[in-house]
Amino acid sequence: MTPAAYIDHHSADLVRQLRHLVGISTVNPPGENYDPITAWLTRELTALGLKSKRFTLPRALLKKSLPPEQHAFPRYNVLGKLVAPGAKKTVHFNAHYDVVPVSGRWKHGNPFSGKIDGGWIFGRGTSDMKGSIASLLLTLQSLRATRTTPRLNVEVSFTADEETDSALGTGWLVEHAPIRPDFAVVMEGGELNQVCCGHNGCIWLEVTVHGRAAHGSRPDLGINALEKMAALVRDLEVYQRQLTRRRWQTPNGRIASPTLNVGGIFSCGAGAKINTVPAHASFSLDRRVLAIESHVGAERDLRAFLAAAARRIPNCCISVTKISENYACFTPPTHPFFAAMAGCVTNVRREPAVFNVSTGFNDMHFFASILKIPTLGYGPGGRKEHAVDEAAKVSELVASAKIYAELLTTFGG
Ligand SMILES: [Zn+2]
After folding, report:
1. How many other C-beta atoms can be found within 10 angstroms of the C-beta atom of residue 38?
2. Which of 199, 211, 365, 405 is the most exposed place for a label (fewest CB within 10 A)?
3. How far apart are the CA of 129 and the centre of ligand 1, in A?
4. What is the CATH number of domain 3-199+328-410?
5. How far is the CA of 84 from the centre of ligand 1 (A)?
6. What confidence score (pLDDT) does residue 413 get?
């Protein structure tokens, strides 16, 4: 039996594994249940014939990197290795096992039940991205059961904290774990017939406007921080228009521009009261950086624009702090690794593959920018990631398992 035929016969195994993974609620923040899920994943990889190890991150590092309310939640990363006799090159498959918190009313009740309905599995993490983990586990099972030797050595990592900043997840892995990949597949970012060859970066800033409080009956004595903030936000529309004029054509012909989302979070700070002139107003900025832009230059530009805009507004005093950032990445899909993956996607899904650049970021940049290896994003995906009724399609989960198997058995590097 071929691995592909084996996968078709054993799709029930994949569904069972995914439901089990979804049932372990690894909500981040704060980072719940990382211990049971990584213990289980390590055992699974070992059972599939991989040399596997779970890395427990040192407490001191947790204390340095995480906010105090998360110090009681340990962090782990799982690494598995399969040596293929005769193979010269190594491919690394990566997925994160954490999920975003849940809210709202779900059609099937409990968001961690993994209910199946109309060919879809519902639940937090089905699409982002425990489905990818389940697909890869079936791929590895199919190779073992059919005694098929891959043409590449295989490394597998299941990592923490992608939904926050990946510092203790893939960020830690690429710096500290004993890995030596020649190529990487991050199992999200591209799905269906799209193979992801890069993604945007982001710069997250918080702008605080400092005013002066006064009695609400004497606004003339204060400096109204909200009014200053409103003027500043209006000026940012000019900046947003400038960004739309920067255009880049991605490999699949999409015209991409940098973007700026204003005020995902905004607040009045402590001491706000209806009868007080607001002394503080703050708002966030989410600047998405194209892979072809300079990350440092983008931040410098935005900060300069804010400073100049504030100078033009009378009595507008601001401070700007960085909340977080993530780097963009892009590998021109000319390397044979990309052609091989596109071929596998085309064969299995019977639809020509195209290369996309994702607007959202994922962990690809750690492999592409730090390890500097050809890195692509591909997985089963799904719908409503980070939202109510997140779901993954069983047929796509099976297709991804076959695509990974075909890549491993046809591409030798
Ligand atoms: Zn994800």
Report:
1. 24
2. 211
3. 5
4. 3.40.630.10
5. 29
6. 82
Residue 226 alpha carbon to ligand 1 centre in Å? 36
Q: Please tell me the distance from the alpha carbon of residue 179 to that of residue 241, in angstroms, as a whole number.
A: 44
Domain range 201-326, CATH architecture: 2-Layer Sandwich (3.30)
Helical ranges in 146-261 per DSSP H: 170-176, 225-244
CA–centroid distance, 162 to ligand 1, in Å, is 7
What does the alpha-carbon distance between residue 411 and residue 95 come to, in Å, rounded to a whole number?
21
- CA of 188 from ligand 1 middle (Å) equals 6
The parts of the chain modelled with pLDDT lower than 70 are none
201-326 matches 3-199+328-410 in CATH topology: no
Using the mean position of ligand 1's atoms as its centre, give its distance from the Cα of residue 167 in Å.
14
pTM for the predicted model, two decimal places:
0.91
Q: What is the pLDDT of residues 371-400, one digit of tens each?
A: 999 999 999 999 999 999 999 999 999 999
What residue ranges do the domains of the chain occupy?
3-199+328-410, 201-326
User: Do 121 and 111 form a contact (C-beta atoms < 8 A)?
Assistant: no
DSSP assignment letter at 24: S
pLDDT at residue 36, as a whole number? 98
Which residues are bridge partners to 205 per DSSP? 285, 322
